[in-house]
Design brief:
Layout (H helix, E strand, L loop, with lengths): L1 E6 L9 E7 L6 E2 L4 E6 L4 E5 L4 E6 L6 E3 L3 E7 L5 H6 L88 H9 L18 H13 L11 H6 L17 H16 L2 E9 L1 H18 L6 H14 L5 E4 L2 E4 L5 E3 L1 E2 L5 E2 L2 E2 L7 H16 L13 E4 L19 E5 L3 E6 L5 E14 L5 H16 L10
Parallel strand pairs: 12-16, 16-17
Antiparallel strand pairs: 1-8, 2-4, 2-7, 3-6, 4-5, 6-8, 9-19, 10-11, 12-15, 13-14, 17-19, 18-19
Helix pairs in contact: 7-8, 7-9
């Protein structure tokens, strides 16, 4: 008999961890190859991991409800098959030469999730010892410092796994961390030497830094006691005490991912926004003219959203910087037009699955794609492939009655557009008369590094022109 180790597999390009939902087999049970073993929840989808071997489940290493990074040992098996390294790799084990996983989360959803994580700089070396000092002694976390004033005390390490418990590399330059993580650490005044990396090959992830910061905040008596005026100290408000009836809700994987994506977006992307009012009267007339026939054929009503999406795909072709990505090497103009569609799951959170090659679809094709994604999202039937490759996001907050909102750009994209509430209003017409028209706003939030306000406004102008120019007599559904 040989022992086979099942490790947490890589469940997506930007997925770095998973939560054990339920073990479908128990220790001592016989397992056939491809039998479903365990349910795993990620920030995007729930999935079931099959057994890569036949044998007996010997030991479960991770309890239900625990969240662990990719490559963590989940269970061991007794099997008659030879334990081949290839088999372990198939089960998701991380070989030493494997590409390190990115530490940034996906964008759930812009509220968002489907964006590529920041790339590790190619020149970032693995931690290596510094050239030996004049006196060869036992390794020290810092090289012998020059005479200087006593440094401010650092936070106590405590028992949090995010805090280093052994000598760390000698400088932040030797810490394995992405630029995003280094920026976050700098903003919070965190010395990466003090943070123990839980990522692949000891990489310090954003979650490690956030956990370290949270520990500092929860132990104010152990923070550095930097001198400051008494008035400034008194101005710091104390944390409010919990009161009767208060309730703490545990964070789900999805809520954590949304929070992390939003923090990355707002701390790394300089946001700007533009809004335009659009006359949807022609679209409203067309919808009314095909209401019964469309519903009889498709089984659901034709909404305004497919028209907004169609207008976006046409405008993106004219303004490729709105469909671009910011990289350290330059602005990457993406050829494919893959639109993320923000879908609310109520209190459970928000997901942003992607319509691939949306510019190739008709109004009916877009309506079908949106319907399919929304139905599968609410039934928890989406797969990881449904979230890959988004280049631009469309939100539809207007279904809940919003008049003006300010969406947050999905990390890895250049912009997001939201359609606001559409309804009849009294407006002044071009011939100086008063009329009742079907009106609604659209708002574009954009990355000001990639484009300027003129580009954003021109993009919205073309979206507006296409929507207002819909001719009920000539528009094609298919």
């Amino acid at each position: 008999m040989s022992v086979f180790e099942l490790k947490m597999p890589k469940l997506g390009e930007s997925v770095t961890e998973g939560t054990i939902g339920k073990w479908l087999k128990q220790p001592g049970e016989k397992v056939e190859k491809y039998d479903l073993l365990v349910e795993v929840q990620t920030d995007k989808v729930n999935t079931e991991i099959p057994s890569p071997v036949a044998g007996t489940l010997k030991d479960v290493k991770v309890k239900e409800g625990d969240t662990v990074p990719i490559g963590t040992l989940l269970a061991t098996f007794e099997t008659a098959e030879a334990a081949e390294p290839a088999g372990e790799r198939a089960s998701g084990a991380s070989a030493p030469s494997a590409q390190p996983a990115n530490s940034a989360p996906p964008a759930a959803a812009s509220s968002l999730s489907s964006s590529p994580a920041p790339q590790q700089p190619a020149s970032q070396p693995a931690p290596s010892p510094q050239p030996p000092p004049a006196s060869q002694t036992a390794p020290s976390p810092q090289p012998p410092p020059a005479p200087q004033a006593a440094p401010a005390p650092r936070p106590a390490q405590g028992s949090s796994p995010a805090v280093a418990t052994a000598p760390a590399p000698s400088s932040n330059g030797d810490i394995r961390a992405t630029p995003v993580v280094r920026k976050l650490a700098a903003e919070h005044g965190v010395d990466l030497d003090r943070v123990s990396g839980t990522g692949l090959n000891g990489r310090v992830t954003r979650q490690d830094v956030e956990q370290f910061v949270a520990q500092m905040q929860s132990q104010p008596q152990q923070r550095p006691a930097a001198p400051r005026p008494a008035a400034a100290a008194a101005a710091q408000p104390a944390m409010p005490q919990a009161m009767a009836g208060d309730e703490t809700i545990a964070l789900t994987q999805m809520r954590k991912a949304i929070a992390n994506a939003m923090v990355v977006s707002k701390t790394t992307i300089p946001h700007a926004a533009a809004m335009m009012e659009i006359d949807w009267t022609n679209v409203a007339k067309f919808r009314e003219s095909v209401r019964e026939s469309f519903k009889a054929r498709e089984g659901y009503e034709l909404t305004y959203l497919p028209f907004a999406i169609k207008a976006v795909t046409i405008a993106l072709r004219r303004y490729p910087f709105v469909n671009a990505r910011w990289t350290d090497q330059g602005i990457l103009k993406v050829k494919a037009i893959n639109l993320g569609i923000a879908i609310s799951l109520g209190d459970d959170g928000l997901v942003v699955p992607v319509i691939k090659n949306a510019d190739e679809l008709s109004i009916t094709g877009i309506a079908r794609a949106v319907r399919d994604l929304a139905t599968r999202a609410r039934g928890k039937k989406l797969t990881l492939q449904d979230f890959d490759g988004g280049t631009f996001t469309v939100n539809n907050g207007g279904t809940l009655g919003t008049y003006l909102s300010y969406p947050i750009v999905n990390p890895g994209q250049a912009a997001i557009m939201t359609t606001e509430s559409i309804g009849k209003r009294v407006v002044a017409l071009d011939d100086d008369t008063i009329g009742i028209r079907t009106m609604g706003n659209v708002v574009l939030s954009f990355d000001h590094r990639i484009m300027d306000g003129a580009t954003a406004a021109a993009f919205l102008r073309d979206v507006k022109a296409w929507i207002q120019g819909v001719d009920p007599a000539n528009v094609a559904l298919s």
